[in-house]
Amino acid sequence: MATKLSSEQKRQKLARAAMNVIWRDGYHAATIQAVATEAGLPAGGVFYRFPKKHDLALAALETMEGEFVPLLESISTSRSVADRLAKFFDYLDAMTPRRVSHGCPLARLMLDMPNDADFASSRRTGQAVFEALINWVADQLEEGGVDHRTATRTGRQIILRWQGAIILAHSMGDRAILDDEINELRALAKDLLG
Description:
CATH superfamily: Tetracycline Repressor, domain 2
Order of helices and strands: HHHHHHHHH
Number of helices: 9
Low-confidence stretches: none
InterPro entries: Homeodomain-like_sf, HTH_TetR, Tet_transcr_reg_TetR-rel_C_sf, YxaF_TetR_C
Largest sheet: none
Helix content: over 70%
Number of domains: 1
Strand content: under 5%
Pfam family, one: TetR_N
CATH architecture: Orthogonal Bundle
Protein name: TetR/AcrR family transcriptional regulator
Keywords: DNA-binding, Transcription, Transcription regulation
Radius of gyration: 18 Å
């Protein structure tokens, strides 16, 4: 006998499904029915919990934020800056196959969202995820002895280059593009730490 999901579990399942559907199909092509099918729940539950499509976008972004932020916190328990950055790049490596096949879910949603007031909260949530990634890398570099300005600039550069490599690897269907860039970013961080 299947266990009955709580209201919060259903919401989380629908939010994850929204993230997956939007990642796969894009925001504009995503439908309530596709989200319901992905979640294995009735479409009425989607309408009940997310009355507007922008509510689905926000839920998808919050799901992404809920994955990245704890990941960065768990990596931060490593003893040395070099270990933390190595684990971070290992994580980027682990995501590579899905990024090559589908692109970056966060970037895709941020690019697809309409630029109107209904999406202001969603846009801030997505920006906060990118800012958390940039700031985490910069903080590690600064803790490792890199001056604040260089650490900040390099944190932004690492996330920028990773995102650019995702776009190119996805567009070309060539994993080596992303693998090579992540390896170069590892080397850049290692060189800065001396």
